[in-house]
Write a structure and sequence with these properties.
Layout lengths: L7 E7 L4 H11 L7 E6 L17 E5 L5 H11 L4 E5 L4 E2 L3 H9 L6 E9 L10 H7 L10 E5 H7 L12 H11 L3 E10 L9 H4 L3 H12 L16 H19 L3 H23 L6 H28 L12 E4 L24 H10 L3 E7 L10 H15 L4 E5 L15 H10 L6 E5 L2 H10 L2 E4 L7 H6 L7 H9 L4
Parallel strand pairs: 1-2, 1-4, 2-3, 6-8, 9-10, 9-12, 10-11, 12-13
Antiparallel strand pairs: 4-7, 5-8, 6-7
Helix pairs in contact: 8-11, 9-10, 9-11, 10-11, 12-17
InterPro entries: Glyco_trans_2-like (IPR001173), HAD-like_sf (IPR036412), HAD-SF_hydro_IA (IPR006439), HAD-SF_hydro_IIIA (IPR006549), HAD_sf (IPR023214), Heptose_bisP_phosphatase (IPR004446), Histidinol-phos (IPR006543), Nucleotide-diphossugar_trans (IPR029044)
GO molecular function: metal ion binding; phosphatase activity
Family: Belongs to the GmhB family.
C-alpha cells in the first residue's frame, strides 16, 4: 500500500451545500497519509469564493465551472488532476475515519483490467419511526451500483471514454452511463471495503415530483446502451413503476377524451380505472411510511401528479434524444501551430517584439484551460536550418508567446529544413507524438489546430484529429482536402468544446 495515496486525487463537485462542511471536516480529521490533492469543483453559476481551508486537508485546489452541472463538474475535476487515480466523493457524504487507509487498501494491487473501485454506502434512517418516501428512496443508494458518491476511477479509463457524458444534466444516470462505457472497453469495476455515510438530505414536499425529470435521462440511457442497460450485470437499475404510470395516464386521458365525446359510461369506466390506479400507487407509498398527517397528504397529492408527469418526461426524452451518438467528450490535449494560427505570420521571425496574437487567441486557449484541456504548441522553424535565425531567437519568441498566451503544457519545435529527412517536421508526426508522450496522452485524444495541410496531415499521421483554420495564404486545394475546417481560431475551439473534433 505504500505510496498508493500519492497517486490519488480526490475530486468533490459542490454547489456549496452546508453538508460540504461535514465532508471536509471528516477528511481533515481522518488519521494517516493524505492523497496527492483534493480538488473542490465549485459548480455554482455565481457567488463568493468558497472558503474550504482547514488544517489537515490534503493539498487543496478550488476550480469553478460556472454552473455546468454535475457531469461537467466531475469532468473538470479529473481533467485538472495529474494522478493515476481519481476518487470521486459527493459533497453530501461523510467518509469514515479510516477512509484514507481503506481507500489505499482497495486500490493497492488491483489488476490492470480493473478501471474502478466503488466504496460502500450506509444511509442512516430514523430509529423512532418508519422512514418517509424520500428517506426510503435515498436509502436505495446503499445498494446502488457504480454511483459516484464514492467511486475511484483510473484517470486513463476516464480519458479513454471522454469522461462523464454532459448530456445528462442532473445528478442522475450520468454515473451509470460512465460505468457502462468503461465496462464496454473490456475493463472491470469492483467494490472496495471503504465506507461513507450518506445522510438523508432535508427537502420539501415536492421533491418526488421534481425527480420525475429523470425519466428523460432513462430514455437517453436506452438510446445509448440498448434495452438491456438495466440488467444486474450492467447498471443494475430497477424499472420502477413506469408501465403503471403509463397505464394510469392513459386512463386519465381516455376519461377526458370520452367525456368530451359525450360517452359518459365509457368515460366513467376510464375515470374509475384512473382512480383505482392512483389509489393503488398512493397506498404503496403510504403503507411503509410514518403515516402521519403531513406524509399522507403529500403522498395523496403527489400520487395523482406523478404518473402523468413521469409519462410527460418520457415523451420529452423521446423527442429530445431522437438521435444521439457516442459521447466523445473533450480531447485531453489541443496542440496549436504557432505562426498563422496563434500569432501573425512573420516569415522566419526571430524578434520577440513581433510575436502578435491573432484576434481571439487569448480567449480561445483560456476557454480550453477553463475546461481542463491541456494546450501546447507544435511549430516548424526551418529558419534555423537555413541559417536565417538562431535557435536562441526561436526560444526567445516562444518565451514571448508563453508570456502572452501561456502557460503551455508542452512546446515542441522542429529546427530542421525540408530536406533534412527528420521525423519531427510537419507533416511528419514526430512533434505531435512527442507532445502526447510527454504528457501521457493517447494521440486519439489529441487535436491539432493549424493553418496549412502540413498541420492536419501531421495530426492524421500521429493518430490525432486535425482542424484547419485557413488564412489568406492557405491553398484552396489544402482547404478542400482538410477533414475539418473552421473559419476562425475561436470557431475551431468552439467546435472542440462542443465535441465536434
Amino acid at each position: 500500500m505504500e505510496g498508493v495515496l500519492e497517486r490519488v486525487t480526490v475530486v468533490v463537485p459542490t454547489i456549496g451545500r452546508p453538508s460540504l462542511d461535514a465532508l471536509l471536516d471528516a477528511l481533515a480529521a481522518a488519521p494517516g497519509d493524505r492523497p496527492a490533492e483534493l480538488v473542490l469543483v465549485d459548480d455554482r453559476p455565481a457567488g463568493p469564493p468558497l472558503r474550504p481551508e482547514r488544517p489537515g486537508l490534503p493539498p487543496l485546489r478550488v476550480v469553478r465551472t460556472g454552473g455546468g452541472g454535475p457531469a461537467r463538474a466531475r469532468n473538470l475535476g479529473w481533467r485538472v488532476a495529474r494522478t493515476d487515480w481519481i476518487a470521486f466523493l459527493d459533497d453530501d457524504v461523510v467518509p469514515d475515519a479510516d477512509w484514507y487507509r481503506r481507500l489505499a487498501t482497495d486500490l493497492a494491487g488491483l489488476a490492470p483490467d480493473v478501471a474502478g473501485s466503488q466504496g460502500r454506502v450506509r444511509v442512516p434512517l430514523p430509529g423512532d419511526r418508519r422512514p418517509t418516501d424520500w428517506e426510503r428512496g435515498t436509502a436505495g443508494l446503499a445498494t446502488s451500483s457504480w454511483i459516484t458518491a464514492d467511486l475511484a476511477y483510473r484517470r486513463a479509463a476516464l480519458a479513454s471514454v471522454g469522461g462523464f457524458d454532459e448530456r445528462f444534466p442532473r445528478a442522475f444516470r450520468e454515473d451509470s452511463d460512465l460505468a457502462l462505457r468503461v465496462m464496454d472497453t473490456g475493463a472491470r469495476l469492483v467494490r472496495g471495503e471503504r465506507w461513507i455515510t450518506h445522510p438523508v438530505r432535508p427537502t420539501d414536499r415536492r421533491v418526488s415530483v421534481r425527480v420525475q425529470a429523470g425519466n428523460a435521462d432513462d430514455v437517453l440511457m436506452r438510446r445509448l446502451h440498448g434495452p438491456g442497460w438495466r440488467a444486474p450485470d450492467r447498471a443494475d437499475a430497477p424499472l420502477g413503476r413506469r408501465p403503471q404510470h403509463l397505464a394510469v395516464t392513459t386512463a386519465a386521458v381516455a376519461a377526458l377524451g370520452l367525456a368530451a365525446a359525450r360517452r359518459p359510461r365509457a368515460a366513467t369506466a376510464a375515470a374509475l380505472a384512473w382512480a383505482a390506479g392512483t389509489a393503488e400507487f398512493a397506498r404503496a407509498r403510504i403503507v411503509p411510511g410514518p403515516r402521519d398527517r403531513a406524509e399522507v397528504a403529500t403522498m395523496l397529492a403527489t400520487s395523482a401528479v406523478i404518473p402523468p408527469l413521469a409519462t410527460w418526461h418520457v415523451l420529452r426524452g423521446l423527442l429530445t434524444h431522437r438521435r444521439v451518438g457516442r459521447w466523445r467528450g473533450l480531447p485531453d490535449l489541443v496542440l496549436f501551430d504557432r505562426d498563422g494560427t496563434l500569432v501573425r505570420d512573420y516569415p522566419y521571425n526571430g524578434d520577440p517584439a513581433l510575436v502578435t496574437p491573432v484576434p481571439g487567441a487569448r480567449e480561445a486557449v483560456d476557454a480550453l484551460r477553463a475546461r481542463g484541456v491541456r494546450v501546447g504548441v507544435v511549430s516548424n522553424q526551418s529558419g534555423v536550418a537555413r541559417g536565417i535565425i538562431t535557435r536562441y531567437q526561436v526560444d526567445a519568441c516562444m518565451a514571448r508567446l508563453d508570456e502572452l498566451l501561456g502557460p503551455f503544457d508542452t512546446i515542441q519545435v522542429c529546427p530542421h529544413g525540408p530536406d533534412d529527412g527528420c521525423a519531427c517536421r510537419k507533416p511528419a508526426p514526430g512533434m505531435v507524438k512527442a507532445a502526447c508522450t510527454e504528457l501521457g496522452v493517447d494521440p486519439a485524444r489529441c487535436v491539432v489546430v493549424g493553418d496549412i495541410a502540413a498541420d492536419v496531415e501531421a495530426a492524421a499521421a500521429a493518430g490525432a484529429a486535425g482542424i484547419m483554420v485557413p488564412t489568406p495564404v492557405t491553398r484552396k486545394a489544402e482547404v478542400a482536402a482538410a477533414p475539418h475546417v473552421a473559419g476562425t481560431l475561436t470557431e475551431a475551439v468552439d467546435d472542440v468544446l462542443a465535441g465536434r473534433w
